[in-house]
Every structure is written in C-alpha cells, then in structure tokens.
From TrEMBL, chains A, B:
It is found in: Cell membrane; Membrane. It is a multi-pass membrane protein. Belongs to the SLC41A transporter family. The lineage of its organism: Bacteria, Bacillati, Actinomycetota, Actinomycetes, Mycobacteriales. InterPro entries: CBS_dom (IPR000644), CBS_dom_sf (IPR046342), Mg_transptr_MgtE_intracell_dom (IPR006668), MgtE_N_sf (IPR038076), MgtE_transporter (IPR006669), SLC41_membr_dom (IPR006667), SLC41_membr_dom_sf (IPR036739). SUPFAM superfamilies: CBS-domain pair (SSF54631), MgtE membrane domain-like (SSF161093), MgtE N-terminal domain-like (SSF158791). The keyword Cell membrane applies. Gene3D superfamilies: CBS-domain, MgtE N-terminal domain-like, SLC41 divalent cation transporters, integral membrane domain. This is Magnesium transporter MgtE. It comes from Corynebacterium glyciniphilum AJ 3170. It comes from the Bacteria. NCBIfam families: mgtE.
Amino acid sequence: MNTQQIIDAIDLTDTVEELVEAKNFTGIVEAVTPLSTEQVTALLERLPIEQRAIVYRLLPKDNAIEVFERFSPALQRDLIQGLRDGEVATIFSDLDPDDRVWLLDELPAALAPRLLHGLSTKDRQLTSEVLGYPKGSVGRRMTPEYVSTRTDATVGEALQRVHAQLDDAETVYTLPVLDGSRHLIGVVSLRDLLRSASEVGISEIMQDVSAMTAYETAEAAARRCAELGFLALPIVDREDRLVGMLTIDDAARILEHEETEDAARQGGVEPLRRPYLATPVRSLVSSRIVWLLVLAIGATLTVQVLSVFEATLEQVTVLALFMPLMIGTGGNTGNQAATTVTRALALGDVRPKDVWKVLLRELGVGMSLGALLGLLGGVVTTVIYDPSVGLIIGLTLLAVCTMAATIGGIMPMIARALRADPAVFSNPFISTFVDAAGLIVYFMIAQAVLHL
Amino acid sequence: MNTQQIIDAIDLTDTVEELVEAKNFTGIVEAVTPLSTEQVTALLERLPIEQRAIVYRLLPKDNAIEVFERFSPALQRDLIQGLRDGEVATIFSDLDPDDRVWLLDELPAALAPRLLHGLSTKDRQLTSEVLGYPKGSVGRRMTPEYVSTRTDATVGEALQRVHAQLDDAETVYTLPVLDGSRHLIGVVSLRDLLRSASEVGISEIMQDVSAMTAYETAEAAARRCAELGFLALPIVDREDRLVGMLTIDDAARILEHEETEDAARQGGVEPLRRPYLATPVRSLVSSRIVWLLVLAIGATLTVQVLSVFEATLEQVTVLALFMPLMIGTGGNTGNQAATTVTRALALGDVRPKDVWKVLLRELGVGMSLGALLGLLGGVVTTVIYDPSVGLIIGLTLLAVCTMAATIGGIMPMIARALRADPAVFSNPFISTFVDAAGLIVYFMIAQAVLHL
C-alpha cells in the first residue's frame, strides 16, 4: 500500500459518513472490508466521535484490535466511551501490557480497576508491574514480555527459549543476558544466535550493553534507544536487575509524542490530543486561551513601563515609531538563544553545570548580533531621520540584542534547574521580560542622547 | 552502561584534553581503552576538532568504526578532514551503503569520486544505486542490503537465505516477499518464519505490506515506518519493484534530525550541525543573523505604518502605551494558529484541500479568543483609563485576534502549496504582517472612536 491508497481511503470519509447517517450497516461493511488496517485507521481518525464507534463495531475482530492499537491514546479513549463494557474488556485484554498502560493513563481512574479485574491473572500481574512506575517514566512504557538468557547458557538453549516464547514476547530479536540474580550482564542479538553453533556459550558472543533505569524519563530512554539504533533497550531497576525492555517502535512513538508536545508548547498552545480536524473548535480555543492570557498579562508590564516614559513620548513622538522594531528584535534574539539552548539541553549536549559556558557564549553571540544590527540600523536611521535618532537606535539594538541573547540562553538552564519544561517556561518569560526591559533601555538611551 | 557512566566519560574531557596537549599518547590510550563505544562517542563529541582526530586515531579499529557511525554527519566530516586519505578510505569502505551516502552528502563533491573509487565493485555499485535518488528522498536513506524471499518459496528456503546473508544484510528480521519480476507482494517476519514448519509456503504466512516509493521524502517514510512500528519499511520504485528497505533505526535517526531542524527554524535559527558546546561562536552568530535581519527588515514595515499615524500619536500619546500589547497579542495568536496547523500538515491530519475547513475553524477560534480577551481588556482599561480607551482596546483585540488566527492558520497551507517548509515560512511572515496590519487596525479604530 502506498500513500495514494491511504489518501483514497481518506476520501471515503464522506461516503462512510452518509452510510452511517443512513444506518446502512451492510453498506459500511462492504466499504470497509476491502481496506487494510492502515487505511481503516486513517479513515476512522477523520470520522466524528460517535460515527467512529459505530464503524469500529463493524470491523472484523482481528482487524479491529490492530486498528485500535494504531490510534492515539486520546482517540482510544473517545472510542472506548462509545463502546459497551464487554467490548471494552475484550479490546483491553488483547492489548500488550505497555499499551494497556498508555490507555489506562487516558481513562478515568474509576474505570482502571474494573478493566484490570477483567484480565487473566498473568496479564493483570504484568500490567500492574508496569503501572507501578511513576507517570512519564520509561518503566511505564517498557514491555515486561521479553525473552532473556543467562551467561552460563549455550546458543542452543537460548534459541530454545526464543522458540518457546515466539507467540508471547513483544520482542525476540534482542535477548538480555542475565546472571544468576537477574543482573543485566549484556545482550545478544537473535542474528548472532543464528550465526553461531548451538554449543557455543552465550558469554562468548554476548555484547556489552547499554541500559537505563525504569525511573528515568521515557523521553530520555526513547532518545537513547533511537540514537543507539537498538531494536530494544534493556530497562533495569536501581539494583541493575532487568525489569523490562523498551522496544524501538515504542521509542519512536514516544519521540513523536514528545515532538508534537514541544512543537506545540513552543508555539504557545497546549498540544492537541486528537487530529486537528477531529478537534472541536471549543477545545482549540481552550488549548490557546490560557497561554494567550498569560502572555497578555505579562505584556501589560510594557504598558506600565511606557506610562513611566509618557512625558518623553509626548516630547519626542518619533520614538514611538521604533518601539515595535526594538522590542521585536529583542524578542527574536531571545527566542533564538532559548531555542538553541533548550535543544542542546534536550540532547544532553549541554548540562546544568555548563551554565557559565553558555552565559559567556550567548553574551558573545548577543554582542556580535547587536553590533551588526546596531550598525546597520544606526546608519539607516541617521540617513532617513537624523544622527541623534540613529545613535539611539544603534545603541538600543546593541544593548537589547546582548541582553536578550544572554537571558534567552540562561532561561532554559534556570527552567531545567527548577524542573520546569524549558520549552514551555522560556518563551513567555523571555517575550515578557525582554519587551519590558528593552523599552526601558530604549527610553533611557533616548533620554541620555537627547539630554531630556 | 547507565547515564551516570556516560557523564563520567564526559567528565574525562578535560583530562584527555590535557593529555593531548602534553602529547602523552600512551596516556590517552590508557584513558580511552576501558571506555565503551558509547562513552568514547560522548567524550569525542566534546573535544575540539583537531584533538578529536588525534584521539580517534588512537582507538582500536573495530571500536573506531562503531564510534564513527554514531557521529552526526557534520562531525564525521570534521573528523575526516583531520585524517589521512588512507584512513578515510578504510572508514568509508567499512560503512553501510546508506551510511556512506549520509557522509557523501556532507563531504566536498570533489572527494566523493575518489572515495567511491576506493570501494570494492559490489560496494561501489550498491552505494551508487542509493546515490542515484534525489537528495532528501528516502531512496537515499534506504539500505539496498536486505534479505528477500519469493511467494513460491517455502519457510525452509527463506530461512536458508537468511542464514546465508546473516553477515551482510543490514536487516534480517523483516523479509520482503517478491514475485517473479521483483514486485513487492507482502512481508514476512523472521519471527513468523521461526514459528512455522519449514515446508509451509511463504504465501500462507505472508502479511499484507505497506511500502513507499524511493522518491517520496525521507521524513514521510520515516514517520510512516515509526507510526506503523515496522522494523523495516520496504521501498519500491515507480513500478512497485522492491529497491531497498528503510530500517527503523535509520527512520528514528531521520525523525530526530528533522525534529532538531524544525525546532530550530521555528525559533528562527538555522539548525546547528554540531553539539552546542562544539559549535564556534562565529557559527552561532551566522546561524541567527540572517533570520534576525529578515525579521528586522520585515519589522520596518511597522515603522512606516506608524509614521502614517504620527499625527494621531501626537494628539493621543496614550495610544502608544498599548502598542506593544496589541501587536504582541496579535503575534501570539497568529503563531498559535500557525504552530497547530503546521503540525497537522506534518502529521497528515490536514491536507491542502482542507484549506476552507481550516479557514473557517481558525476564524471561529480567533473570534472566540478575541471576544474573550477584548471583553477582559476593554473592561480593565475602561476602569483604569476611560471608556473610549476601553472601547478602542476591546475592539482592537477582537479584530486583531480574529485576523491573526485566520492568517496564522492559512499561512502554513500556502507555504505547503508553494513547496516551502511551513515551519520556516510562516512565523516571520506572520509576525511581520500581523504587527503591521494590527497597528493599522488599532489606529483606524482609535480614529473612529475618538472622531479624529
């Protein structure tokens, strides 16, 4: 199936909607049956909530669970609310333990015990293991269903274990190697097992391993797994005993999730939990209003600053003309620095203890940028207006850029130190602070130059 | 190895730098040998360019190539420039075909033919196959080294092929199933092969497959591979014949690369190609100055707008006090809309033909936001200043938010239509346009209310 076929499926949306309106269920079945899991998912994602549940009910069972697994947790919740308890229980028990937890995180707390109760003892135990770890930790995203082997085992024995668990284990391509007390010693890939004679000892083909503890954040573990290109990253407890594996497809899912969140927050919106067109306007508004209010209230600071300088403004109205340019440039410089440093923090290129290095670098960057822009702006305004205005603009740009870059670079470090999300915390603070501070600098320089 | 051990390695940086200064090579070997590939990579990434090459030379050969593969393409280039041709040729031939292409994309064009010439005939042929596809296409990121099987083969025959190619193939866990003329018919997982009796026919256990053509973008293919949780996504030519596989670890690498780029551009900086602390201040400046200039030049539009209304400003200086607040709120609303829609486009939740749906939704969202903020702002300013100011502020907020959200929502769609990157194109345009237009609206309303 290629992209075109997905689009064809999406184009079925209107047809299916009409069929549902017309309660023509056989028609729906005929329309949906020929579609692949992927096409059905794309189609359902674009249907209104109630219709989604109706069409979902009409899918063949195996197809249905695959489709369900592809939905985002929020869509899964929407769907579940439209289904009967029996149907929900079935879906729930068909999911992998870690997928169950994704879903439970979404559902009203009251529902969780009932669903867990419906599971087989083994499933319930596996699931609650995963549920035991704090929200946002990799422990909650790892799979407890893996095939492990032991340092004293042979390749033949390991392969037997793989064969025995081919149906249950979520991952069979990377085997963690444990010692007698379940401590993680290394890993061996299925590929290497197949490559070796069955009497060879695991310890001979075992590779040095990289693991993370179940309490580290899911994002950090996912990024690690992706960077190392591991098919599965072993997860250990504080005593280095293996508790689960983070598979790379889950890692990719986590990274995509994080990416969406960061991108949204950087733009000052709460991330949407559903596809854009499936999100009611009301939710769009509420995903933005809070941020907009915070930023607007912050911006009133500029009103107060300006009222202090109202007299100066009345004397030299021309100063007002450059206000947006000055604060805009400051804001942009600040955001540039914040973006770069936030990213560096996320990738681990910069650590909290590097704060002074960052401060110095951004100071240098800000002064260079300010010098370049200030020179340019100063000359231009001198030509168009007069030298005194040119001097004011030039000096202000120099000062504002230097200040903005430094603050913009430091803010994410402070945010991190305060355990706040740098991406969220930095931008509003910067725009607010830099705007206000920038205006103060601007008018102080103006007063000095014009001897007011 | 856990995070702590990585940090320990990083903390070695200063020690190693001193050892290099002191030309104490045995000392370096002693310091580096006990470290894992991962630790060495983290350590080298933090060394200055010249020192990096020196230390790299001292690594044991197998370890060296693994470390090289972990470097970002830009770091790989830096390193290569510090090595002798012989050393470069060796590294180059040890890489996988697709990794060679990542690297060639980085190197000066002149170097490419020489390096390709050094390869074995088979390697050269495989590499140039991949090189044949346009930059940015998945054809350039896929691996041509995979194990395939045929619809008429048995499980036993397929497993034999896997065994035969265990050493060469980059991926052996997902086998594309082809017909006589290499058309892609389905896929079968190694897990299912191991699960089935050797006389079973492939066609019986084969699964429906999802593929993309080699000419689609690497980002789209990577996102698809991650969303489907495939270990490898088959890549076909325009006739649906298999040409390669995109492995999920490469997909994750591509997505991380894209994520870094988008995050940077959204913040108005060109993405850094090296870790922050390894990037010279000069490069930091040049990664920002262009954007800053573009935005500043755009912002001069506000100066022109304001000079038109200078007379009004002189009469009613109080209007100047609210300028930053008004344009700030407009800019924020616009960026919120742009961020949401850009994201929706990237995820395929919104398609270009949905432009009217988006327009209507953002119009609704903008008016709601504007009504809320306008009411609040209007009341507050009425209390603090006077009703006429309150009316001006209230109406302006309503108008600006409505306009900003609509434009912010449409811009990414236009950008996409113009084949420009929405993330890059939208924000500067919005901030420029919305600021200027916002000021015009503000002063027009003011003039109307105050009968100027």
